[in-house]
Amino acid sequence: MGGRRTYNMRTLYKCATSPRRFNGRRAEDRRFPVLDRFDGGLAFLAIGLMFLSICDSVFTLTLIANGGSELNPFMNWFLQRSIAEFVGVKMFLTAIPAVLLVATGNVLVFRRFRARSILAGFVGLYCGLIVYELGLLSLL
């Protein structure tokens, strides 16, 4: 007989409406500890990542309007279709990993890093990108 805990839509509802866990209590929960609750630092990182993604979109569109080009061929394809698609896909491709990294903040990735560290790394990379774009904008 398996564990006494079952996961269904009611479990998901309870986790969303009255979260309780920062860490897994049972051994099987600690192997893949999806968080019901997360600390403020994780929320700050996820919100910061989304803010930086918005800044990147605005700066990219400003640079393109002044003669620049999108270097990422995948995103350039969406930009050629429409600005709304470009921004929508960019926000989607940033939000989904941010949500997953927050929900799995304590999970070890590559047996070495916690997911929260990867989220912090993404924020750092985005900060570097924003500094680079600000440098390009200062040349206009």
Choose one word for the global shape: elongated
**Structural class based on helices, strands and sheet pairing:** mainly alpha
Q: Which series of helices and strands comes N to C?
A: HHHHHEEH
Low-confidence stretches: none
Strand residue percentage: under 5%
How many alpha or pi helices?
6
Task: Explain what the structure shows.
The protein is mainly α and 140 residues long. It has one domain. Helices cover 67% and strands 3% of the residues. Strands 1-2 form a two-stranded antiparallel sheet. Strand 1 and strand 2 form a beta hairpin. It is elongated, with a radius of gyration of 19 Å. The termini are far apart.
Provide a compact summary of the structure.
The protein is 67% helix and 3% strand. By secondary structure, the chain is mostly helical. Strands 1-2 form a two-stranded antiparallel ribbon.
Topology:
Blueprint: H1 9-17, H2 27-31, H3 40-65, H4 73-81, H5 83-103, E1 108-109, E2 113-114, H6 115-138
Antiparallel strand pairs: 1-2
What are the main properties of this structure?
140 residues; elongated; mainly alpha; single chain; 6 helices
